[in-house]
Structure formats: structure tokens, C-alpha cells
Amino acid sequence: MKKIFFFLLMAVSLSAQKTELVELKQNIKDRRGIAKSITIIDNRADKEIGNTLFHKETYTFKFANDDLKSHIENWFLKDNKTRGNNDIVLLLEDLKVYSEDPEAKIPTTKIKIKLSSFIKRNNKYYFLNRFQNIITSESSFPKHVAAQISNAVTSTIRDSYTCLPLVGTISEEELPNYEQYLTKISPVFGNAELKDGVYKDFRSFYDQKPEPGYVIDKNKKGRVTNIKDTNATLNQEVIDNELVFGYIENGKAYRSTPAGYLEMIKDDKGFYVVANKTELFVGNGANGANGAMIGAMAGGIVGALIGAAIDSGSSRRSSNVDTSNMPNIYLDSLTGSYMFD
Predict the structure, then answer these.
(1) Per-residue pLDDT tens over the stretch 106-122
(2) Phi, psi of 47 (to 5 degrees)
(3) What does the pLDDT read at residue 315?
(4) Do residues 64 and 115 touch, judged by C-beta distance below 8 A?
């Protein structure tokens, strides 16, 4: 009788849990034909992706193919008949799906992802790109959550085809600690003083190489309104704000955002801005930020939208705004992308 009860209990438990497959099948064609192969190192401490609640049912997520390494290698080969010389290695460090406040009437689903890419040459690794964020899913519909994971993996691969590697070779033994190694040798993290100037993108900021001839332009109140190129011809000297990452003045760094140029403060975790999520992305509020994060990791945010907001002044933060209750939003130390909780 006890055995019958036990099996009935197990059957009920299993029936209450459903599985949602994360399928990796979007097109990852390398249009420049420079990649030779893609493989993956799965360094997750816990290989289980996790689960979430939807309509009072628990959905567990897993990759459609248990052999993730072979699947990604074959996925690349299927989409790339013409190949080059670059061997790309993905490093999966974290992937978790979970419900925040599962007792709530409508639980919020979050997806934590940390996925990096490298070029491998002569048993040395060169950092290319990284997706490191916590996505707050606008829907707990399991297929939507699975699609967001797939989109993040796909966009990381696609972006890696065009990313230039960071300076610094990493051995196989150093690979688990690549971030610590790269930030240590980076001028922006390794030096006590920052170099004044305007920076067109995060990579130039990371290397501390300001753009020659670019200067900040201020209004009568002392606020930076735009950037000027002193080497440009008349009527072409004004540079749209979306075309720059930010600037450094008197050793202080500032990030170009829809809310204006916000100070980037540095601590032992890296650089951060004090802002609300909706101030950093334009168009669809906090949910729009999730879409912008996927496919826009290498250097920050969607440029045209930022420029429109900064130039129009519609989203500018006034000088007397109380920021005491705003969170510290950190920038990824290797890509410059915003990282959210």
C-alpha cells in the first residue's frame, strides 16, 4: 500500500512539472567568412538551467540537445559552408532561469546569463565579446523565456564575428580568471588617473585612447550639450551624441545617455552610473531595455535612439533631480554594457 501511495505521489509531482526546450537554431552565418569553427566550454558550476512558474505550473528549462558542445559546433557548420581561419570559443559561465517572489500573484521571471567569446590561436585566447546580464522577462510564457535565452546566445555569436579582440593573451590555465587578468592590464582599470578627452566607443575608453580633435561643447550653464570635431570643416564640426561613448574631464568620466552625460563613478567592482533603468534606454521603458540589451552588448546602447533623446532634450535629467533612491548600474568591465539586477 505504501509503495502504491509513493508512486502515485511521484506521478502527481512529475505531472505538475513541464519541460521547455531551449532551441538553438537561428541563423548564425558569418557573412564575412572569417570564422573557421565555433565550440563551447561549459564552465557552469550547476548545469541545470532552472525553472519558473506559469499559470501555477512549474516549467523546467533545458537545452534541446544535451550535448551542447557538439550541437553548437554542428550548428555553426550547417550555417557556414564558406569558412575562414578564426577558431571561436564560447565560455558559458552562468545560465539560470528563476522566479522572483514565486508566491506573488504574477511571479516575475528572470534570466541570468554570462557568456563570453574568444579567438583561440596557438593555444592562447583573445577576448572578443560577452553577454553578462540579468534579464527581467516581460512575460513568463515558457516559450518566450526560452526564446530570450536563444536570442542572447545567437546575438553573442553574431557579434563575435565582427568584434576586435582586446589586447592581452590568455593561457588555457588563466581562462577561468580572464576578467581579472584583462582588467589588471587595462589602462582604464590599472592606472590611478584617467586621461582627459572624448571617447568614441568603449574600446577606446578601455584602452584610454581619446579621439584626436574631439572636444566637449558646453552651454552657458556649464552643461555639455554636444561634441565638436576641431578638425572638421565648417557645418560638420558638431558630432551627434550617439556617436560617442563619453568623455573624461579633470579626471572624471561621463557616459553619454538619453538623460544626458552622467558621471561614471569607479569602485572596486568597476564603473557605474546612478540612474533608473528607464533613463538609459529609450522607447519602451524598462521592458524596452531587455530587447536593447540583446544584440547591443558591444559598446552600450542603441545609438540612434539615444542621440534623438539627447538632442531633443526630452529625456534630459534636470540638475536638481534627487538621485538618492536610484540604483548603481554597473558597466560591464570588458564591453561597457549596462548590467542590471
Answers:
(1) 889 999 999 999 999 99
(2) -80, -10
(3) 62
(4) no
C-alpha cell at 200: 568614441
d(CA 232, CA 94): 46
Residues of the chain with pLDDT under 50: 5-15, 284-288, 291-292, 295-314
Angstrom CA distances, 278 to 19, 257, 315, stand at 33, 11, 10
Q: What is the rounded distance in angstroms from the CA atom of residue 215 to the CA atom of residue 230? A: 7
Question: Where do the H-state alpha helices sit in the chain?
Answer: 2-15, 68-79, 142-162, 178-185, 187-190, 202-207, 277-280, 285-293, 303-312
- What are the DSSP calls for 217-237, one per residue? EE-TTS-EEEEEETTSPTT--
Q: Residue 206 CA to chain centroid, in angstroms?
A: 16
Cell numbers 550547476 correspond to what residue?
46
- pLDDT (0 to 100) of residue 282: 65
- For the record, the C-alpha cell of 154 comes out as 545567437
Give the pLDDT confidence of 214-243 residue by residue, as tens digits: 999 999 988 898 899 999 887 788 998 888
Element holding 54 (H helix, E strand): strand 50-54
**Location of C-alpha cell 588617473:** 193
Q: What is the CA radius of gyration of the chain?
A: 23
H helical segments located in 25-169: 68-79, 142-162
What cell was used for 36? 573557421
How much is the pTM? 0.85
Positive/negative CA dihedral, 333, 49, 61, 153: positive
Q: What's the rounded Cα separation, in Å, for the pair 235 and 309?
A: 21
Local structure of residue 166 (DSSP, 8 states): P
Cell of 92: 558559458
Q: How far apart are the first and last CA of the chain?
A: 49
Report yes or no: 318 and 163 within 8 Å, Cβ to Cβ: no
pLDDT for res 1: 52
Full strand arrangement of the beta sheet holding 238-239: 214-218, 224-229, 238-239
